[in-house]
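I hope you will forgive my troubling you with a question about protein structure. I should value your view on which stretches of the chain appear to form regular backbone elements. Here, with my thanks, is the record as I have it:
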Amino acid sequence: MLLTVYTLPQLAVSAKILCLLMVVICGAVPSMVRPVRLYNQCSHMFVNVFPNGTVMARSDGNDQPNLTISTRGLSLDLLIHSPVQDMYLCFNRSRLVGRRLTRFQAERTPNCLFKEEFVDGYNRYHLVKNQDRYIGFNRRGAQMRRGKSHIPERQHKCFSFLKVAHDFDINRHNNLLAGDLPKWRQQRRLRPPPQNSLKPPCHGVRHHHGRHQRRRNCEGT
């Protein structure tokens, strides 16, 4: 009978792999939770969830993050949660709503799972099970009810968002996108011209010396 002898480093590696497998099987992989505000590019306002579950892009005057975005386990599926209302953002048949679910329930509800994509420096969010169903708002902050394929190209910016923190400055962001220099950057100082390049003004000046007057010409004589 052959006996396999393991060294201590091998046992340590095996133990780590076993622990990782147990965590994955149990579904207890910790997720990354990011507090954010979602600034809509079409309405120029932030996404808010109201107590009755209505979701609109309306600024409420609160400069603190009012949503959290977290991942589901090892996948790239996202959950969008409103800690203020304790609701998860989910799609029903017609629109996006806030639903009072536990995280366990939200992770197992396909209409509450989103994918994130990046387009022209902005974030967009669509359902995992339906890549045509995006979160979007019009100029008034109301929801875009139709799918992306049914929306004209010029209105696709209504699906775009900025994930911003409480100290976000939209004017500085727009200046950077436009290629303008930030206001805090000092401009280059101009060098003064050489002293020998300075010439006296070339115009007639009368100097009074008693009764005699003489005119100064352009050469200074």
Observations:
- The CA atoms of residues 11 and 170 lie 54 Å apart.
